[in-house]
Specification:
- The chain is an alpha+beta fold.
- The protein has 4 domains: 91 residues, Alpha-Beta Complex (DNA Primase, Chain A), CATH 3.90.580; 127 residues, DNA primase, catalytic core, N-terminal domain (DNA primase DNAg catalytic core, N-terminal domain); 193 residues, Dna Topoisomerase Vi A Subunit, Chain: A, domain 2; 104 residues, no CATH class.
- It is 50% helix and 12% strand.
- The strands form 4 sheets. Strands 1-2-3-4-5 form a 5-stranded antiparallel β-sheet. A 5-stranded mixed β-sheet has the order 13-12-14-15-16, with helices on both faces.
- The termini are far apart.
- The relative contact order is 0.06.
Length: 540
């Protein structure tokens, strides 16, 4: 008996989200882009003039000669003369997904998911209403100062989670509060996961609220606290603002990726409707796959500080396997310690447009990375830089595009690296901030204690570590893991204080300016204070 095609509704939706129809069809049909469509000669009938078209953002193909049309599944079935199950298996292999069992979806699971949607929507309404009460006055004032209008607040359904257990109490009869990530179960019953936070609902592709991101208002860590993964929400596969940005991405022929929710909202409401953001600091290959399915032109816009530069370098590395000859990938940086929100507020839309328009193409950005991170003035540094470039270029799937990059860099290497001059200024090698043992320990902690990852999100994100790796062979409990993070945080803060003290001491010795001594004394007090904290921590 042939399997029922409705059995894989969720799985096939995921396949369509992961795989671009241009990539699937392009393996069998040479395609040329004209406007917003791709054209080629139909593989299902003989023709010399292309009448076969593929629309990437809609996920379908159509031949105007023979009438054949469909999506990636129907194309795979017809081109390979295979049944539905075999086509799904082939596409799953392409997407790197595990094929689930051919079983009808359990009605109870379907009902469970609908209940999660419903409770999230009801919670969003509650948070939104609370924002306009005396309890939410501080949160509303914060939004006003950040330039949020009532229309913006309503559109994005922004709200406020008070300090009490408003969700646990209001929806006490619901069985889905824990499953939806809204509440946790403690010794004395349910308590709200989000408290005293500005609430940003997270929408799926269909516009349904599936989770929340709560921003602290008092400076407490973590700055942003996200719903942990649920049956309807997966952080690695959720792009903030995408449900609002789809049409704008199509019209602008690109997407813009910024670092945070507020930046994304302010960009969208100031003429850059194609802007989206990952959740937290970690951009994933799933995020890139989703964006590339809509449009392969992406501009990454990050802060110009060290953390932003590291985020851009990581985005570049993740982007490499998704590059095609039609891709236009660029990197823009907001300098002066500002973010897009601040630029828009203080300098206006024209200033932000200038930053985006002057974004650096990927081919130049990758070249800059090689020159910044290695001492290309020496033979050894050149070799390291070449190995770095080769490793990144090996990720490119299109052999012709890979060849172009290699030829371009070979030309640049000949022009810039052809001879080593002894007196040439040496570029300092930027050593990694975190040693291998510490890095592996942190990867282990993040993978095994997601609650700690959420709690110390800002600190962990500032380290520039790729947490997608695997670290095995360690055995830590929650207390030991948190102790490790806190001690590392204290060590790094003390290093910063001691560095400032050394600079001020040198300044004092050189100038004799006694006013500097007060600053040094203040630093000594701060160093003593946090050294005592570290000593206490290490004795626990």
């Amino acid at each position: 008996m042939a399997p029922n095609r409705t059995n894989f509704s969720n799985f096939t939706d995921e396949l369509r989200a992961r795989l671009s129809i241009v990539d699937v069809v392009g393996k069998r049909v040479p395609l040329t882009k004209k406007g917003d469509r791709y054209w080629g000669c139909c593989p299902f009938h003989n023709e010399k003039t292309p009448s076969f078209t593929v629309v990437e953002d809609k996920g379908f193909y159509k031949c105007f000669g023979c009438g054949e049309g469909g999506d990636i599944i129907s194309f795979t079935m017809k081109i390979n003369n295979m049944d539905f199950k075999a086509a799904i298996e082939e596409l799953a292999n392409m997407a790197g997904m595990k094929l689930p069992d051919f079983k009808p979806r359990d009605p109870n699971i379907v009902k469970h998911e609908e209940e999660l949607f419903n409770i999230c929507d009801a919670a969003a309404n509650t948070f939104h209403e609370k924002l306009f009460t005396p309890d939410g006055a501080a949160a509303l004032e914060y939004l006003r100062k950040r330039g949020f209008t009532d229309d913006m607040i309503k559109k994005y359904r922004i709200g406020y989670a008070p300090k009490n257990n408003i969700i646990a109490n209001k929806f006490a009869g619901s069985k889905y509060l824990v499953d939806a990530g809204l509440c946790r179960r403690g010794d004395f019953g349910l308590y709200d996961f989000f408290r005293d936070r500005l609430m940003f609902p997270l929408f799926n592709a269909n516009g349904k609220i599936v989770a929340f991101s709560g921003r602290s208002l008092d400076g407490s860590e973590p700055k942003y606290k996200n719903t942990t993964d649920t049956d309807v929400f997966h952080k690695r596969r959720t792009v903030f603002g995408l449900n609002f940005a789809r049409d704008a991405i199509h019209r602008a022929n690109r997407s813009i990726v910024v670092e945070g929710q507020i930046d994304a909202i302010k960009m969208q409401t100031n003429g850059f409707g194609e802007t989206v953001a990952p959740l937290g600091t970690a951009l994933t290959d799933e995020h890139i796959a989703i964006l590339c399915k809509l449009n392969r032109n992406i501009t990454f816009c990050f802060d110009g500080d060290g953390a932003g530069q590291k985020a851009a370098a990581r985005a570049c590395s993740i982007m490499m396997p998704f590059l095609r000859d039609i891709s236009d990938v660029r990197f823009a940086f907001v300098s002066g310690g500002k973010d897009p929100d601040e630029i828009l507020e203080k300098n206006g839309v024209d200033a932000m447009k200038k930053i985006i328009d002057n974004a650096v193409p990927l081919v130049d950005f990758l070249w800059e990375l090689a020159n910044k991170n290695f001492v290309v003035a020496t033979p050894g540094g050149k070799l390291q830089a070449e190995k770095f470039l080769d490793a990144e270029l090996d990720k490119i799937a299109d052999p012709e595009l890979k060849k172009f990059f290699k030829q371009e860099y070979d030309k640049r290497k000949f022009q810039s690296w052809q001879s080593w001059k002894k007196n040439k200024e040496v570029v300092k090698v930027k050593l990694p901030d975190i040693d291998a043992i510490t890095k592996n320990t942190l990867i282990y902690i993040v993978n095994n204690f997601p609650e700690l990852a959420e709690k110390y999100l800002d600190f962990l994100g500032s380290l520039g570590i790729d947490f997608d790796g695997d670290a095995s062979g360690l055995n830590m409990d929650l207390a030991a893991a948190e102790k490790f993070i806190v001690s590392l945080k204290l060590h790094r803060y003390l290093d910063k204080l001691n560095s400032q003290k050394r600079e001020l001491t040198n300044q004092w010795l050189e100038t004799g300016d006694n006013s500097v001594r007060d600053e040094i004394n203040n630093l000594d007090a701060e160093i003593e204070k946090y050294t005592e904290k570290l000593e206490v921590l290490l004795t626990i």
